[in-house]
Amino acid sequence: MSRRKDALSDLVSRLAFITIANDYHSDAGETIILGENPVFGDADPVSALGLVIGNTVEETQGGQVLFMLPVTVWAFQKGVTTDALLGLEDLIADIKYAVEIEGRDQNALLGGDASVDRSLTGTLPKGLTRVGTTVSPRVGGSEYIGGSVLYELRFREAWGGE
Amino acid sequence: MDLRPNIEAALDAFALEAIVTVPDMPEVETRVFWLPSQTVEVPAGTEVTRAEERRVLVLSKVDVPQVPRGTIIQIAEYEGGQESLWRVDSMEKPDFDHHRVVVVPHVET
Question: Taking the model in full, what pTM does it have?
Answer without folding.
Answer: 0.77
